[in-house]
# Entry
Amino acid sequence: MRRLVTLLFIAAVLLTACGSSIDQQSTGEWQYSFADSTGEEVILSSRPQRVAVLFSSYAEIWTLAGGKVAVTVGETLERGFSPEDTLLVDGGAGKTIDLELLLAAQPDFVIGSADIPAQADACRRAAQAGIPAALFRVDTFGDYLRMLKVCTDITGDTEAYRIYGTDVEQKISSLLKAVEAREGEKREILFIRAGSSYSATKAKRAPDNFVCIMLEELGAYNIADDAAVLLDGLSLEEIMLRDPDCIFISTMGNEEASQGYILELFTQDGWRELAAVRNENYIFLPRELFHFKPNARWADAYCMLAQYLYPELNCYE
# Structure
């Protein structure tokens, strides 16, 4: 049922995601307005030329849409979404923003994450200074599709919306239909967001993590969904009781240290007796698809999860 709702939601996005615009060719003017993920109306009176993007995954979406990033954060450079000489207002992932430097850079549009307080504050401050600013929240493919539509509306690159949006949507829809036909093969799984210590390692569930949402759409049952104790850490007793078929692991922070912590954990009493550990049915998911948002590669991310759940499945047959 959730997969059907997802497909209907994505279809609705195609009808409602775009804002209103005035075409420059027909009127001599260009204007575009839309509601961001917080419900705030954003009005652009001209196509932006100097855009500040405060979150690396959104910098990728902006560049996919044909835009260029003039101001950003260190993680955007590290991931290759802007040139090395791009002005930085934060040296890392955008959790602290130099507001004075941001405003002094005189961007004509600011994009930030609604989930990061420093970015939300920076966008509010920019708006107060008369600079259009938008906050986005991307937790599902539908969220991504909506943001991409807004960005391509702004840049005018409709081909990018087809390539990185609707073409990807068609692949995902086909895959979800193929999975729907295997309804009787539901797998019990556990999803772990791993750090390098016990306190930084937690079981996650939908809707708290986008990977959990994807796994649910693919017919997996996450044992954390009805075991709230798992959300405060990793209750070995609860996990042994449910003995999941498969364990999916997403690492954060230092990837090598996080993987090392989990592998050591799996050698301990109780953990090594789990069927998923004993049969090596545990997967360290690649960070570029499952820690960061997969963006243009959402279909690849769905396919990878589906083939772990159903090894004989041909994603795009």
About this structure: The first strand starts at residue 20 and ends at 22. The first helix runs from residue 2 to 16. The mean pLDDT is 89.
